[in-house]
Specification:
The structure is a homodimer of 111-residue chains. Chain A is an alpha+beta fold and 111 residues long. Chain A has 5 helices and 3 strands. In chain A, α3 packs across α4 (46-58). The structure holds a DNA duplex (30 and 30 nucleotides).
Chain lengths: 111, 111
DNA sequence: CAGCCACATGCAAAGCTATGAATATTTCTA
DNA sequence: TAGAAATATTCATAGCTTTGCATGTGGCTG
């Protein structure tokens, strides 16, 4: 696997490694939205949303369409929301409970 | 979406947000391996591999089986390697080329 | 039990990320 | 052109990550 691809992939995951950016991606999964819609529906400051969108944009995960003085953001590819859904699937089904169980076992063991 | 789940998901993505950890996950996708195997096949120091494995473990992505003085690590769930593959798919097919194209357009525009 | 493996952990410096506040830019409208 | 609306950028700081190096630890084997 070429390093360049790995780095790109790591960058994609890095974009998704923050709850608010995941929320933004999820909000965009249902279609394009402008900054104001995002910042009010997600209850995050305008400037913060704009900053996070530029992170997502510079990694190529979202694109913008400007119209008047609105900037409509959307996912560059719907596969991205599939990726997030799969992550959710993983987290919800297994990892959380498995880790909790393991911590219980470990704490029992250490006594 | 409950914040707790989002935070867990962000943590999973965060684990995958580094090329070497992705390489480790990929190496484990083909079955359990001990630390020495990983550190020599990936050309990373023993201590580094051990540290990264503990990151992956504390987020519940891998598990250990200890036998003698070996520690055999494996993915806790095969869905994780599916997730990585999907990420690769996304990166290889679209994002890279799309971003490059966009940068070309942008640099043309600014002249 | 001495010494060697295979691993794990602690530490510290360098670098990166998150985030609010203030400010700038762009575009529309009167 | 002035002003307002929507978005973008800059800056500063606190906090987290990375990563090498040195050291610690548990389990074998002679």
């Amino acid at each position: 696997m070429p390093m360049r691809v790995l780095e790109n992939l790591a960058q994609v995951f890095s974009c998704l490694s923050h709850p608010n950016r995941i929320r933004i991606v999820q909000a965009l999964a249902s279609g394009e939205k402008d900054v104001t819609e995002l910042h009010s529906s997600l209850d995050l400051s305008q400037s913060y949303v704009s900053q996070q969108l530029s992170v997502l944009k510079s990694s190529g995960l979202v694109k913008v369409r400007r119209e008047g003085h609105h900037a409509y953001y959307s996912l560059r590819h719907e596969k991205l929301s599939v990726l997030v859904d799969q992550g959710l699937d993983l987290v919800e089904q297994d990892i959380v409970r498995a880790r909790e169980l393991e911590q219980v076992i470990e704490s029992v063991r250490s006594h």
